[in-house]
Design goal:
about 230 residues; about 5% strand; mainly alpha
Length: about 230
């Protein structure tokens, strides 16, 4: 379920979820085992892969048709992950190709009229780039967006307006995506406690970090860590 719309997962259909979209997964049946490949995409990847600024941190649509090309890439990625835990030399190439193919397909057949002309320009204001760098560097600190906007050379209202125009989302959502990226990487690494990660990312209590992670990642951080650690852990 994405944005209140049911999108079945089948061998012929996948889904793409932009960071701010409410979603949850519910199995339709329990008789047959289900194996699902889930990819969490770093916000930085969108910046590198997007053809226009409007595409940053968003998919064109949620439904992904499993074409022969995407199916082959997904199968190869899953096989390399299962056999070598992602350590095989070709894994990164397959994963990158799969992600790019799925991302590009969500923008195919998308009406150009859905994209405001200013957002299709593909140019990002240098002051926004400066603000994004500051947000990335200060993740572990209490972040004052008014201060960020001043240091970037913008008033707070202009910063929010420009950010939404050129990035397609408010800076608060972008900041949440950055925090999720760092939380996921550190949870998967497994060398710090969940509480330590939460405090380091600026959350006052483990409960507030857990609520944030569930709201953005569906499951509690401890459950996510167990899922990526595998049965051996």
């Amino acid at each position: 379920m994405i944005d209140g719309k049911t999108l079945p997962l089948t061998p012929h259909a996948a889904t793409a979820i932009s960071p701010w979209q409410p979603h949850y997964f519910a199995p339709l049946g329990h008789r047959e085992p289900t194996l699902t490949l889930v990819l969490y995409i770093r916000p930085g990847w969108f910046v590198d892969a997007s053809h226009t600024a409007f595409e940053i941190l968003r998919f064109g649509r949620s439904a992904v048709e499993m074409s022969d090309h995407i199916t082959r890439l997904a199968s190869e990625t899953a096989r390399l992950l299962a056999r070598h835990g992602g350590c095989d030399g070709s894994f990164e190439d397959r994963l990158s190709a799969l992600t790019q193919a799925a991302f590009d397909q969500t923008w195919q057949w998308t009406s150009a009229g859905d994209r405001p002309a200013a957002q299709c320009a593909g140019l990002r204001d240098f002051r926004l780039r400066r603000a994004i760098n500051m947000l990335s560097e200060r993740l572990g600190e209490p972040i004052d967006l008014a201060e960020i906007s001043r240091n970037a050379g913008l008033s707070r209202p202009h910063f929010f307006k420009l950010f939404r125009e050129q990035m397609g989302l408010p800076p608060t959502i972008f900041l949440n995506a950055l925090r999720m990226e760092h939380a996921i990487e550190r949870l998967a690494r497994g060398t710090e406690t969940v509480s330590e990660i939460g405090f380091d990312l600026g959350f006052a209590t483990p409960a507030s970090f857990s609520r944030f992670f569930i709201a953005n990642g569906v499951v509690p951080p401890s459950a996510y860590r167990r899922s990526v650690a595998g049965p051996a852990h």
